[in-house]
Amino acid sequence: MSAIRLLVVDDEQDLLELLVRRLKRNGFDVDSAGTAEDALELVKKNDYDIGVYDIRLPNMDGIELLKETKKVQPDIEVLILTGHGTIDTAIEAMKVGAFDYITKPYNLSELELTIGKAAENKALKEKNDSMKKIIAQHNGFNIIGDSANFKEVLEMTRRIADSDVPVLIEGESGTGKELFAKALHYWSCRADEPFVPVNSGALPEHLLESELFGHARGAFTGASQDKKGLVEAAKGGTLFLDELGEMPLALQVKLLRFLETGEFRRVGDVRERHVSVRVVAATNRDMEKEVAEGRFREDLYYRLNVVKLTIPPLRERKGDLPALIEHFIGKTKDPSKLLSSEAFAALEDYDFPGNVRELSHLIERGVLLSKGSMIAAEDLLLPHAGKTTITQTEVQLTPLCSLEEVEKVHIENALKQMKWNKTKAADVLGISVRNLYRKIDQYGLKE
Questions:
Q1: pLDDT digits over 228-268, tens only?
Q2: Dist. CA 184–CA 172, nearest whole Å
């Protein structure tokens, strides 16, 4: 665990030096200043856990320094040292955010005890900020699969869960890469700390950097206050970088530096910050090909690829279908439904290009469309469930038809099978009813 970092401010030089020596001897990481102006310069450059400010300083007093400090570092805890221990001074200090105040002359052991309490309070607030997210992520965490190749990956996951080394998870879309990232987290000693996912492909480069590392107030238009990034939110836990192959090259350089040193800067800030997290990355791309073609940094790839987990696609673990189907039916609004033998046979013959995620959607659709207690094969609406489905439409596809023509045929087919019930058709297609009406108008579809 890193040492508690303190900033001590007092204009009495002898007392300041004595206090700094004592605190350093007892394991604290201490910076000091004799004026509020010098202290603010340090606050702008470095990150502190605790501030210890004398109330009487030249030009700017300790309470004003506290206010200015909180503008730059809102999470710092500040103790006020005062030789004028009136209740008014104490109340004023506490109102503007002081953790506590101590009257001079003070007992050094008492001061150290209060510093320790302030540090505990800061750590507790940070933990509480992420506790709801942790609980939500932990609930319902489940990995299903008993096939040999899947069990092999699970066993490797258990073996490396408690390690701090980076892990690269590879697999096709929908195979469950995030579930394995969560397993690495919740099967480790970090289980009570945050698991923080970052989608590397969801945001443009400048926003992704701010999301990842945070930003300082005034860093760009709209940055009205300091903001912690997801790297800091994951402190002590796991940072999950999903869709790693989508990360821009410029940001890859900063990620590499963070992986090597644990240090980073918020966007628009000059202060170096340090945080300890376990990094897990996932991708559905061929990363060696990405490196060879210059789209991904080789040094970053090898830094992340200390241990690799490759998740098998569902078509290579068909033996897990019964358990997965039972699980997904159980999560629907009608968990008493059963899958017919014909429907199961159709799923066994299907290649699942969307993997486990696609199976989940197929089961949800089947439960929704089935009329009795049994889910029939036709209720699943498998994409190639048969040429009979396609020939029911009046529109025929040519071998080199456009995407618009494919979409038109698919929407018209869904509407016909749902007997033009637009709510059901929208559910099957996975779009909103409003969007469906727009498509009907766009393609001139008629009942």
A1: 899 999 999 999 999 999 899 999 999 999 999 999 999 99
A2: 19
> Rounded CA gap, 73 and 67, in Å?
10
DSSP track, 97-160? T-SEEEESS--HHHHHHHHHHHHHHHHHHHHHHHHHHHHHHHTT------SHHHHHHHHHHHHH
Query: Which residue has 């197929």 as its token pair?
Result: 362
Q: How far is residue 141 CA from its own chain's centroid?
A: 16
- At 331, give phi and psi (nearest 5°): -90, -5
Distance in angstroms (rounded) separating the CA atoms of residues 160 and 169? 13
List Cα–Cα distances, 74 to 9, 67, 122, 280, in angstroms: 18, 9, 11, 29
**136-185 pLDDT, tens digit each:** 454 446 789 989 999 999 999 999 999 999 999 999 989 999 999 999 99
Q: Is 90 helix (H, G, I), strand (E, B) or coil?
A: helix
Q: How far is the CA of 191 from the CAs of 178, 188, 400, in angstroms?
A: 15, 6, 52
Which residues are CB-neighbours of 440 under 8 A, at least 6 positions away?
411, 415, 422
d(C-alpha 259, C-alpha 300), whole Å: 9
381 and 428 in contact (C-beta within 8 Å)?
yes
